[in-house]
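Chapter review: from sequence to fold.
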Amino acid sequence: MSLHSALDQFILFLATERGLSTNYQLSVRQSLDRFSLWLESRSYHWNLCSTENLTGYLSHLKSEGLSASSIRVYLVHLKIFYRFTTQRGWTPRDIAAPLLPPKVPQSLPETLNEQTVTKLLNSIDPTSLLGARDRAILETFYSSGLRLSELANARLEHLDLEERMLRVTGKGNKTRLVPIGSAAQHALSTYLTQFRQQLIKPSVSSSHIFLSVRGGSLSPERLRAIVKDRAQKAGIEHKMYPHLLRHSFATHLLHNGADLRIIQELLGHADISTTQIYTHLDQTTLHAVHQNCHPRA
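The token string follows.
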């Protein structure tokens, strides 16, 4: 079997049996196509090469300037591909299984303090059409810690304003319920009852909660632009993007005593280790406060 055919069947498996997103499928295909080109340049056959060959490929990626985090992604794709082909009997053994991922220097996520978030949200006038929509967007981002794609795909039928809950679909096509704070509830109620109807265009609009001026759903790119524009208008110099509100959501919960497991559930993290980065951030803050405030620090 050719590598091209094996990749086609592997991507089909990711789509149909694993239910992974189109973006993830594209990412996997691009990284494995790059691996394919490397194999061709060395006349290696994909189902006859060795673990040492794969180590050589990862070294090649490093020599091309890829970061450790990027190489980890390429390795993950190789691992799931060769696990799949071994299970199908296309390769005699799983040559990627022994490989260990490179260590990635841990970087702390950027966050905003509570005062800056309040300044941003209060700067948006909710009495105009786009003001009401954008205020509801930013309040929901910060209130529920949503990913960009989760908010872009949020639909009316998944929202229960009375119970203050929203059902979203996150990574791996997994759904979860997220609570909505009272401020976000009020902003959403204002937008939905007084303004959303003005954005609806027959044969264009869907049940997405947030609509564009043309009546369609808001793309992730447009949502990024809205967040950035609203920050600029509020006079906030910090580089603003939706995920910054997600990081701030988690950090402020932790600062105010929330359990890490609860934060994990709210964020939709499959692994608690992903959420634990916020504990490091909290410790950094504690050290800074101690250093600045204690008389004998």
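Two observations follow directly from the output. The mean pLDDT is 91. The chain is about 60% helix and 5% strand.
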